[in-house]
Specification:
By secondary structure, the protein is α+β, with helices and mostly antiparallel strands. α1 packs across α11, α2 runs antiparallel to α9 and α4 crosses α5. The radius of gyration is 21 Å and the shape is globular. Bound molecules: pyridoxal-5'-phosphate (PLP). The site of pyridoxal-5'-phosphate has 15 residues, from α4 and α5.
Amino acid sequence: MSRSVEPPCSLPGDVLRAVKNVIGDSVAPIALHEPEFAGREWDYLKDCLDTGWVSSVGSYVDRFEKELAEFTGARAAVATMNGTAALHTCLILAGVMPGDEVLMPSLTFIATANAVSYAGATPHFVDSEDQSLGIDASKLEAHLREVATVDATGCRNRHTGARLSSLVVMHVFGHPCDIDSLAEVAARWKLVLVEDAAESLGSEYRGRHTGNFGRVAALSFNGNKTITTGGGGAILTNDGALARRARHLTTTARVAHRWSFVHDEIGFNYRLPNLNAALGCAQLERLRDMLERKRRLARDYGEQFRPVAGVRFLFEPAGTRSNYWLNAIILDRPSVTDRDAVLATLNDARYSARPLWTLMHRLPMFQQAPRSDLSVAERLEASVINLPSSARLARQ
Ligand SMILES: Cc1ncc(COP(=O)(O)O)c(C=O)c1O
């Protein structure tokens, strides 16, 4: 991280002006991302209460899963109580075993690393690139050449002796990562590819929805996401057998029977309640409209930030279509002092803005975890700022 230096005095003011030009003056605080319930949410929730179908089975769960699969183009979607539960299940489905190492970005939300830990594995952190903010495929390849061996039995860390079983990629702020290159690296090193697509519902890479590139993927419908079920998530897969196993594992591994309770392995109570799925069905009906408005908002930010010296707006990478879940600007000169001066100015003016998550390798529980050089992630940590991104902020 860079030394403490005075920010260029005009930067915070310039950024505030650009933000105001996009979303206008407001006396009320502007949230970073807020849910929008403008469709049939009340009707569907009332229906659950009227019929008594409020828990983890019900027609809205089935419908939500079917519509999610249709929207994303995945063969199956299995709804879960949150994205972290989806991710944990994805890692088990990917064959991650206790004692394994799992390659993943340090630049991500804590849930990615937590899910690896829940599976009994150790995160092995790799660096990001500054166009998508996702894992840098060529740096990953170089790192594997340095630390790993691969043979018919799979990939191993030469230094720790642990099996490297899986690669988890993340589509940061909804911008698809360089997934084709990452899938090639994963195939070469016999790593099962898992997508943390928690932030990228509605995002496409070369015309294909994110979540269709790995063996399994996780979505999140937390209250801060593009659409929400209150709390919720889903597993996406194009493998029918994995979808059946996902459903089994997330419903306590109960063997189907009219009355007896038999469970054939240790499963999880991870299913999404019908109440939450009802919200999801109403939200999905308005998803395309929300995505359109979010793109308009991002376009306006892009235009307003073009003339601002010292920052760039983070556009979707070439060949992708982002959902622009969270808009971001990146300071040309990484500096926590400059970044925090901008954050203070925006938040003082009641425009919610925030920095990146603290990188995973800095957190106390992961400081000993294996890692590659993480210099780009560290630069980004000192230079990325998220801006208010709710669809309702888009101009008509
Ligand atoms: C990258 C990433 N992974 C996983 C999650 C976990 O999702 P949830 O909060 O639904 O458990 C989130 C969001 O919260 C996320 O942003």
